[in-house]
Design goal:
It is built from seven helices and eight strands, in the order αααβαβββααββββα. By secondary structure, it is α+β, with helices and mostly antiparallel strands.
């Protein structure tokens, strides 16, 4: 005959019940309810993470010896959207600063009507070789905060492989001709094919300035951006 387990419950040892009751009393005394426990664990995890970061810096595993790599990484995260290269946060540049940069040549002043919050915008060329200069578009805003919010939104529309350089799509079409790159169908021709590619592969933010830089991809574009910024900052 099969035993009926419901009619034969297993007795819990008295010392086990006593131990459980004691633990419950300790939890109540300490006040470690669900929310409090989670908060405490979060604080402990944060402290451990900070300690680990400090240890890495002391061991020389984060950035260069002068700490430049660490500072740059923190600035990128704290001062702008992910994926946007931030060169400086508190600098305030003007059109004259760019014009006075060695090997830079301004070509056009753009009207900023339609480019929300912008104060100025210029198009020009930069490079030590006057016959092999790259093209740049600089947009100026009142401050860094405006550049990383309003400025980034507009810059994303005009740069990179996903940019659609069409007048009926771009919110700000001033200088649209200069922002286009043509891919020719005929050898030696730059204007026989379509001209709906973005000339500027990427951009950087330097204080209050959003700088769009020529390049067929982000890597080349950012290298050109950094070259111009080094010349501007060395004045």
């Amino acid at each position: 005959m099969r035993q009926n387990y419901r009619e034969a419950p297993i007795a819990v040892a008295p010392y086990v019940q006593e131990h459980e009751e004691m633990m419950l009393k300790r939890v109540r005394m300490l006040g470690l309810r669900k929310f409090g426990l989670i908060t405490m664990l979060s604080v402990i995890a944060f402290a451990m993470a900070c300690g680990s970061a400090e240890s890495n810096v002391e061991d020389g595993n984060a950035g260069s010896g002068d700490g430049g790599g660490v500072a740059a990484a923190v600035e990128d995260v704290s001062s702008g959207p992910p994926g946007v290269e931030i060169i400086s946060t508190d600098a305030v540049y003007t059109v004259d600063d760019l014009i006075n940069t060695p090997n830079y040549k301004k070509s056009k002043n753009y009207k900023v009507e339609g480019l929300d919050e912008a104060t100025d915008a210029v198009y020009g060329f930069f490079g030590p070789d006057p016959y092999d200069r790259q093209e740049f578009e600089a947009r100026f805003y009142p401050d860094h905060e405006t550049a990383i919010t309003v400025g980034v939104d507009f810059a994303d529309e005009a740069t990179g492989p996903d940019a659609v350089i069409a007048k009926d799509i771009q919110r700000w079409d001033e200088g649209l001709v200069q922002r286009r790159a043509c891919s020719g169908n005929t050898r030696g021709s730059h204007h026989s094919g379509k001209c709906d590619n973005a000339k500027y592969g990427d951009y950087v933010i330097a204080g209050n300035m959003v700088l769009l830089c020529q390049g067929k991809n982000s890597e080349i574009s950012l290298a050109n951006c950094n070259a111009l910024m080094e010349a501007l900052q060395s004045q």
